[in-house]
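Much of what follows relies on a compact textual record of a protein's fold. A record is reproduced here so that you can trace the correspondence yourselves:
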Amino acid sequence: MQNHSPLLIDFSCDTEELLALFSAFLKSSENLHLVASQAGGRESEVNYRAARYVCKLGPSDDATDSFKPIMTNGDRSGIQSSIAIGMGDMVKTDPPIPPVAAGLLNLGADICADLPANLVHWMPAELTSGPEFFLEAMREYGNGGAFPALPLVRFEESEGGAILTKGLHWFARQEVRFETEKLDEAAAVKRMVRILHDIVHNGPIAEAMQVAGLEAEEELRLLPKADGSLVEVQLA
């Protein structure tokens, strides 16, 4: 049921109960307005903070079983239903417009705040997080905090001990590979989060450059590949 919906939220109630809960949520929310619905209310186009999104309700499946858990044990026992959230046709672009992408994340956070969610899956990075953690991360982001990389971007080990992102591509059609031979993983990720924030908000890095690091006199070298799909990051 995910189709092209990047955000999937699981529930332990069955689909009929979820439909009733979601209908009540639609009526009570100040930021959310129903535009159209079909399939007995199981597919709704909604207006959320001036942008259109699609929410699809249905039974859960096992497509997320292999996802990496973040701040949750990822236990799907008892899960019966899900809400898949995607962009409406009027705002769907590739990559998404940053405020529209942020709106989708905030809509997911509102659902986690008001409905009894069990798990949150971010499909582009194949990550599963707990609803409380997802909600807190999105609220901090909405209040001007850094891009919430942990529940949205997967950090994987690459050749030579480098760290490679997975899922940033959804936001900017670009991934990041950080050469970590001079840093431990935690220090490298901290620097990567800063770069990811800039890419998500300002677009992919298109030309080689050097930028300030986090320590005094530290500089980072950013080297995008010719096709723009990857940027290599090295300590200068």
